[in-house]
Amino acid sequence: MLTDVKSHTAEELEAEFKALGQPRYRVSQLLDWLYNRRVTDWEAMMNLPNSLREQLRSRHTLHSLELVRKQGVRNATQKFLWRLSDHALIETVLLPASPALYGEPSDRHTLCISTQVGCVYGCKFCASGLDGWRRNLGIEEIVDQVLAVERWNATEQAGAGGGGASQASSSRLVSNLVIMGMGEPLANYTNLLQALRVLNAPWGGGIGARKITISTCGLAPQIRKLADEPYQFRLAISLHGATDEIRNKIMPVNRKHPLRELTAACEYYRQHKQRMVTLEYILIAGVNDGSEQIKPLAALARRLKAKVNLIPYNKVDGLPWERPTEAEQDAFFNALEKEKVKATLRREKGHDIDAACGQLRLKIERELAGQAR
Ligand code: SAH
User: Fold this and answer.
1) What pLDDT shows up at residue 373?
2) Is the pTM of the predicted complex or chain greater than 0.90?
3) How far, in Å, are 18, 66, 105, 319, 356 from residue 112 at the CA level?
4) How far apart are CA 242 and CA 295, in angstroms?
């Protein structure tokens, strides 16, 4: 089976080119076409000899994502729906330039990327798992979410007279990554890690490891595995409940990896990386926003030296869950602060564009299914 050219590191390509009797500088030329100019076909790689292009074509695919729909306007949250080569749909969300929520402050953009089509973990409140599980994303499908958004941006800028296509195409838009789109990143561990190697490398996406946040619903063994890798990625835990009783109710994964196991894995991560873990906590009215969650949540945050990100729940069509009122959200936040926990209350930016993960895909798939009927 052919591998995609964007699923390989520079070192792997160097070994391959060496075996083909090609000089090393050809690899640099190829990488420049792929990651600076972000071309989508072999023909465009003008300075590579025809014979080499043919050789590459016979050994690798060069897949790129096809834009199906974009929601949102410039300078606000923008959401991209892509079609993959097998026609599956995935989403990527571009957050506006603002102080970064994850990673260092930045005037550049954070991109939220998907790692799977659908999800098996079945968190009760989430749209991603509603239509079940399809498959893992390939390495290049993860990588190309960044390139495709930058490609789109370059075209837009060129169209708006913003400096011409060639200049725009080499400018990097995305400086921070959050792996919080559709799917469970740590369940697609091998592909995710290789994609992040490519996106992190100076010859590739050029995104610093400290600016990459991986979010998980709580796969404790993979958190430990990640801690042993030589990368300083940030870790976010989708906690959403500070007791096993609540987590069991809304996140089936907790039955497999209960809080005790999850907390120990987070501590392991923190000790190995010297990095603060973030606890994500969506506030769902009458489900996990009661005052009895405050003490256990504060205890957990203190033990992990973690920051708590409170996120009002984004309503999902077909699910009964609601967000609490703003007064109730504030009360929860204030109670946490009183416990001396570092917390933020993030009033959702993407509420108007179906930004909760999996929502746009679900909507469009249902529309398409409706049209087919
Ligand atoms: N599977 C990973 C990453 C994808 S989900 C994880 O669970 O962390 C990204 C985040 O969005 C998670 O914290 C998830 O719980 C949250 N989320 C899912 N549905 C949501 C909704 N309707 N409103 C707000 N946040 C939601």
Assistant:
1) 38
2) yes
3) 36, 17, 16, 23, 11
4) 9
Residue 43 appears among annotated catalytic residues: no
pLDDT above 90: residue 285: yes
What residue ranges line ligand 1, CB within 6 angstroms?
Answer: 123, 125-126, 180, 184, 215-217, 238, 240, 280, 282, 311, 313-314, 316, 356-357
Nearest CA to ligand 1 atom 8: 216
- Convert the pLDDT of each residue in 173-222 to its tens digit: 899 999 999 999 999 999 999 999 999 999 999 999 999 999 999 999 99
Q: How many angstroms does the Cα of residue 215 sit away from the middle of ligand 1?
A: 9
C-alpha 348 to ligand 1 mean position (Å): 12
d(CA 42, CA 206): 22
Q: What is the pLDDT of residues 266-284, one digit of tens each?
A: 999 999 998 889 999 999 9
Pick the CATH number of 66-372 from 3.40.50.720, 3.20.20.70, 3.30.70.100, 3.40.50.300: 3.20.20.70
Whether 174 contacts 106, CB under 8 Å = no
User: Which of 11, 43, 91, 217 is labelled catalytic?
Assistant: 91
CATH of 3-61, one of 2.40.50.140, 1.20.1560.10, 1.10.150.530, 1.10.357.10: 1.10.150.530
